[in-house]
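Late entry, written up from scratch paper. The run itself happened at the end of the previous shift, but nothing got recorded in the book at the time, so transcribing now.
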Amino acid sequence: MSRLIEQSIDDTSTALRTVEVDANSESAIKSANSSIAIRYRALAWLTGAAGLAYLCRNAVAIPESTIRDELGLTLTQSGWFMGAFFWTYAIFQIPSAWLSQRFGTRATLSIFICGSSLAMLATGLSPGFRLLLIAQLAMGVAQAGLLPATINSIGHWIPLSQRSVACGILGAGMQVGAIAASGLTGRMTAQFGWRLVFIAFAVPGVAWTVGFFRRFRDDPSDVLPPESDELALIRSGRSTDKATFPSDGDQSTELMTIALSPMMWWLCGQQICRSAGAMFFASWFPTFLQKTRGISVENSGYLQGFVVCGGLIGGIVGGLLTDWIWRETQSLRMSRSGVGVAALATCALLIVGAWVVKSTGLAILLLSLGAFCSATAGACAFAATIDIGGQSIPQITGVMNMAGNFAAAACPIVVATLFQLTENWNLILLLFAAIFLVGAICWLLVDPERRVGPAMQRAKFLA
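Output as recorded:
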């Protein structure tokens, strides 16, 4: 009888231990999932900022002809108006990068997005060309720190094996904003006028700023336990270099080191080509469709959105592809440069195809595929800035993005000038095919396995 009682007690103890182990395992799984969720919530906030920024900047191009007629602008003035944003956006990349590194993403990105919304409001209230120009210049200043701050935070929050996907998701957020601008602006302008549309687009950024400042944290260690596996995973791909070189106050020497790196030249070269091509789709593309294919203002906005959809999908696919190649080959050069070369070369061929075909639908499809390929190269470009940046990720991202946006700023003006000289929109399309081909050549010369910035400079001192 006593043996039966002892056996029963043993069985009960074993069952209780099993339940306890199961409960602990379930708790660990929930804790791990919660930690991962925190990582992707941080990415979601950053992606939301990118989407709102692109909603504001892309909305301007669609009612361009309406604004030009209402305010009595010349074609050249419209070119300056649409390109004004990108001049200050490019010039303030490096100062904004320094601010984001110095004060953190939480504080600076809140200021940037709120400032962008106020500039959008001013654009809608502008009575003429001068104030319209000033409002767009102000928006460029406000949005200049977007990419340096967000890419730096991706480097802090996302493990090496998933960085390209994260950059792709960030790029997709930009495209969602652009698609929303394309899909909404034309129809809303027809019903309410462009001024009310721009004022309405200014509101979401203010709401985002309040939520972001309350919820976001710059460092994962602020919200994750010090000994957690998730924190160890995030930090496993981060540079261990200390940022002593730039912190000593010699920022100009650091920037000179970055600017004089030949590898940085090629990285900037591909960004110049991609940005110029993207700017054509964001600025003159609706007018191109209206003049060459007889498309209405409203429908040109929808078709622009269709092309931008290619960019949205391409950003995510490019991130997945880049990370997959890295996991399979452990080669940063193949996963970054290889994807960049293939994507931009294919984009150039697709644009040539769109020039050849007569069907509007087929031309739009080919251009959408071209935008897809161009965006595929975007994820690996920003992942490369994290790879080579060490503690200088904001500065390197800022330099690369500055170069690209000087090209974007010049693009509307150059296109307007070329059209006035040639009166041939199709010739301009061929020009952009050549630009994307040059971008592919630049990617051939990029080696993301070589560090640029303070770490490289210290190596010279120790040699």
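The radius of gyration is 25 Å.
(Scratch paper discarded after transcription.)
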